[in-house]
Each structure stands twice: as structure tokens, then as C-alpha cells.
Design goal:
Largest sheet: none
GO molecular function: carbohydrate:proton symporter activity
Shape: globular
Keywords: Membrane, Transmembrane, Transmembrane helix
CATH topology of the largest domain: Growth Hormone, Chain: A
Number of strands: 0
InterPro entries: MFS_dom, MFS_sugar_transport-like, MFS_Sugar_Transporters, MFS_trans_sf, Sugar_transporter_CS
Subcellular location: Cell membrane
Structural class: mainly alpha
Number of domains: 2
Strand content: under 5%
Helix content: over 70%
Order of helices and strands: HHHHHHHHHHHHHHHHHHHH
Low-confidence stretches: 9-17, 471-480
CATH superfamily of the largest domain: MFS general substrate transporter like domains
Radius of gyration: 22 Å
Membrane topology: Multi-pass membrane protein
CATH architecture of the largest domain: Up-down Bundle
Number of helices: 20
Length: 480
């Protein structure tokens, strides 16, 4: 490990105070970057819901001969692809940089989405789902770390939380689209699967011309290139703001100077310094998504088992909206009350809600349905944290590797859940299936209570090292 990167003002010529136009330009850049990275999360939620909606409609299964085994494999295909995409391409991104991979992964996604129009057999859908998952997994490990490396400390949860909200928005939009197609044009299921090409094109346009992360450049010793990016996009972020915001901008500039040139070594994720953090981010993310992906992918089936009957598909659509409302709640709270509080409590809340659903016929249908929707709301609150915690607890040299490891582990958990849930419902029934899902949430709650750090307001280098003091709460909730 070398000394901290030297980008201090002593190396630079004196500069005039920035005008409002410069500060506004740089704030607009941060909004554009949020949109460009959030587009990838929107697409991930969109793809997952598209597959769920196409399978729920029935016409696709009839047309291409989707058996029960193929249903389980297809439902898990994007998740399996995401595992390998995050695990392998996160490390590649730490080696080669954020910028080139940021465009390449989405280009592969676009081509694959268009190939959905050519699907005539179940195995083709499974293979294309794997490739889509690879691209999505890569984007998980690229987009949110890039945004974290540009975001001000006091507002980092705000910006990163938007990404997770967009995942839920993508899911809702795709599920609604699939619901309309299934209802009015059931034979148009190819359009349900290929529709993700539209947001992919828009996202590629938004990403065109975005710069490399200055923190990554500094971590590779490329000081001059980093200084150019900082000058263009970061130097005047706090200009024109309150005294607190200007002070925070100065602290973030100091944090950039603290970035160290380090070699990327994947084994560092399992070193004594980061072993517990790696285990924590993998475990809490698995415990969030394993029940959720399984229960929402087969949400109409679960709601029919609860007793909703013919209203199950509409109830599933309502459930996706409730999860989105929870995500908005979590986003509002994340920089105000901190990360731990919106993880530990909701995780135990999910466990309680699912244990109540497991009581089955002992509860009135309206109460069991309310408990299920309560689970979805609690899930939504903590659902923004997989886009925040992993980005904060690893240093720049292994940040995308750590995010890729955690997202990959979570997708294996989600794939296991989506594969096993229909089998469990068929052979064990609703009660034991819900008990299993509740137990997963309970494990997540215990793990989070013991290991979740509070990173709210910490500078990124301090959060990664587990040191430092957070900024005042007011700095995280003002303007911008």
C-alpha cells in the first residue's frame, strides 16, 4: 500500500470562486449519473417481473412447451446469470475501470433482450435469461459503486437509495405491462419479454460520455486523470449551498485526497480486515431477497393459497406497489435515522409477518393477506440497503469485487428460493413454506443486529476502514 494520493491544492494554480452556473452544472451531472446508474437497476427489476408475468400468463408456457421443471429453471435463470456476472465481472471492473464496463454490459443486455422475439423453445428462454442475468450482475457491481464514489458523504444514502427505488419501479412497471398483455393480448408474450430493450436503449444514451471514477483512478495511481475529472465534476459541488454543505464539500475533497493507490486483490475480501464485512453483506442481502424473490415470483400462487382465489393476480399487482411504498419510506429515512435502524427492525418485522401468514386457515383471509402485504412493506423499507451497505464497507480497490460477491451470493439465494418455493407449496403446503421463509428473515435480523455497522454520514474512505465520525444529520437532509 502506498501513501495517500497527492491531489492537494498546493499542486494547482489559484482559481476564482465558482459561480452559480458552475455549481448548478456539477449538481446536474450528479443527477444525470444517478439516472444513468439507476437505469440499470430499473432494468433489473423490469426483467425479473417480465419473466414472472410471462410465466403467470400461461400462453407462453403453452406455446413453447414450458413444463414444471422448465418453469423452475427459467424462473431461476436470470438469478443464476446475475451470480456469475457479479462475481466475475465485479473483479474485472476493479481491474479495468468502471467506465468501459458500464457501457459494455448494457450493450450485451440490449442485444439479448431483442433476441427474445426469436424464442420458440423453453431452452432458448433459459439461455437468454442466463445472459441477461450476466449483464445485470455486471451492472450491479459497476453502477452503484460508481455513484457512491461521486456522491457527497452526507447525501450518499439519498442517491444510492434512489437506485433501489428504481428497481422496485421497474418491477411494478413490467408487472403492470405483463398484466395488461396477459389480460388483453395473451399471445403477445414475446413483447413482455423483449420490452426491457426500451429502457436499455434510453440508459445507454444517458451513459454516453460519463467519466471514469476519480477514486478508481487514484487507487491506480493515475493522479492527473483523477484531477481532471474532479475539476470538471466535483470541485464546486458545495458552492452556493449552506455553510454546512460547503463544509461537507470540503471534507469530501479531503476524503478524495486520502484515497490510496492499492493493488486489486480478490483475496482481500477474505482477509481478517474484511472477512466479517464480506460475510455480513452476503448474509443480510441473501436474507432480504431469498424470501422476496420467491414470494413475488409466485405471488399469485401464494395469494391463492391464502384464499384470494380469482383476485390473486390483481392482489399481486397491489403487493408490488406496497413494496415500492416501503422502498420510498426507507429512502426517506436512510440519511435521517441511519442504516442499522431501517435494517434490523424491518428484518424482524418480515419474520413476524411471515410467521403469522404461516398460521394459514387459523387467520381470516383479510388478516392473512394483510400480514403478507405487511411483509412486503417491511421488505421495501430495507430493500434500499443492498444498494448502500456493500458500496460503503469496502475500499475502492475491491469495492466492485465486494459488491459483486454480495450480489452474486444474494442471487444464488434468490434462485434457491424461487426453485424450491413451488415444490414446497405443492408438497408441504403454505404453512411450512412460510415458516421456512420467516426463518430466513429471522436469521437476517440476528445477523444484522450483531454485525451491521452504522455508516451514515461517514466519508467513504472512513466507512470502508470502519473509522471516523459522521457528518451532522442536517447536512444529509438539506437541499441538493
Amino acid at each position: 500500500m502506498t501513501a495517500a494520493a497527492d491531489i492537494s491544492p498546493k499542486d494547482e494554480e489559484p482559481r476564482e470562486e465558482p459561480g452559480a452556473d458552475q455549481a448548478a452544472h456539477q449538481r446536474a451531472f450528479l443527477r444525470r449519473l444517478t439516472l444513468a446508474t439507476g437505469g440499470g437497476m430499473f432494468i433489473d427489476g423490469f426483467v425479473f417481473a417480465s419473466f414472472a408475468a410471462a410465466l403467470a400468463g400461461g400462453a407462453m408456457s403453452r406455446d413453447i412447451g414450458v413444463t414444471s421443471t422448465w418453469t423452475e429453471l427459467i424462473s431461476a435463470s436470470t438469478l443464476i446469470g446475475t451470480f456469475f456476472g457479479g462475481l466475475l465481472l465485479g473483479y474485472v471492473t476493479d481491474r479495468l475501470g468502471r467506465k468501459p464496463m458500464f457501457t459494455l454490459d448494457l450493450s450485451v443486455f440490449l442485444v439479448t433482450a431483442l433476441l427474445m422475439f426469436t424464442v420458440t423453445e423453453a431452452w432458448q428462454l433459459f439461455v437468454l435469461g442466463l445472459v441477461l442475468g450476466l449483464a445485470v450482475g455486471a451492472d450491479y457491481s459497476i453502477g452503484s459503486p460508481l455513484l457512491a464514489e461521486f456522491s457527497p458523504s452526507a447525501r450518499r444514502g439519498h442517491y444510492l437509495g434512489i437506485l433501489e427505488i428504481l428497481w422496485n419501479v421497474g418491477y411494478v412497471v413490467a408487472y403492470l405491462l405483463g398484466y395488461l398483455i396477459n389480460t388483453h393480448w395473451p399471445d403477445a408474450w414475446h413483447w413482455t419479454l423483449a420490452a426491457s430493450a426500451v429502457p436499455a436503449v434510453l440508459c445507454l444514451l444517458a451513459r454516453h460520455g460519463l467519466p471514469e471514477s476519480p477514486r478508481w483512478l487514484l487507487s491506480k495511481g493515475r493522479k492527473d486523470e483523477a484531477k481532471a475529472v474532479i475539476e470538471a465534476h466535483l470541485r464546486h459541488v458545495g458552492a452556493g449551498g449552506s455553510a454546512t454543505q460547503r463544509a461537507q464539500a470540503a471534507a469530501d475533497a479531503e476524503d478524495l485526497r486520502a484515497e490510496q493507490a492499492e493493488e486489486t486483490r480478490y483475496r482481500d475480501l477474505f482477509s481478517p480486515a474484511y472477512r466479517q464485512r464480506s460475510l455480513f453483506v452476503c448474509t443480510f442481502w441473501i436474507c432480504i431477497v431469498l424470501p422476496y424473490f420467491a414470494l413475488t415470483f409466485f405471488q399469485p400462487t401464494v395469494l391463492r393459497a391464502i384464499g384470494l382465489g380469482g383476485s390473486a393476480l390483481a392482489g399481486a399487482l397491489i403487493g408490488t406497489v406496497i413494496a415500492l411504498l416501503g422502498a420510498v419510506t426507507g429512502w426517506y429515512l436512510v440519511d435521517r435515522v441511519g442504516r442499522r435502524q431501517i435494517l434490523v427492525g424491518p428484518m424482524f418485522g418480515c419474520a413476524l409477518a411471515l410467521f403469522l401468514v404461516s398460521l394459514g386457515d387459523l387467520l381470516p383471509i383479510w388478516l392473512a393477506t394483510g400480514c403478507f402485504f405487511g411483509y412486503l412493506y417491511s421488505y421495501g423499507i430495507m430493500s434500499i440497503l443492498p444498494g448502500i451497505y456493500p458500496e460503503e464497507v469496502f475500499p475502492t480497490s475491491i469495492r466492485t469485487s465486494g459488491v459483486g460477491l454480495a450480489s452474486g451470493a444474494s442471487r444464488i439465494g434468490a434462485a434457491i428460493g424461487t426453485f424450491l418455493l413451488p415444490l414446497s407449496l405443492d408438497h408441504l403446503g403454505l404453512s411450512w413454506s412460510m415458516i421456512f421463509m420467516a426463518t430466513v428473515s429471522l436469521i437476517g435480523g440476528i445477523t444484522s443486529y450483531r454485525w451491521a455497522p452504522e455508516t451514515n454520514g461517514l466519508r467513504l474512505t472512513h466507512a470502508a476502514r470502519g473509522e471516523g465520525q459522521p457528518v451532522p444529520v442536517g447536512a444529509g437532509t438539506e437541499g441538493g
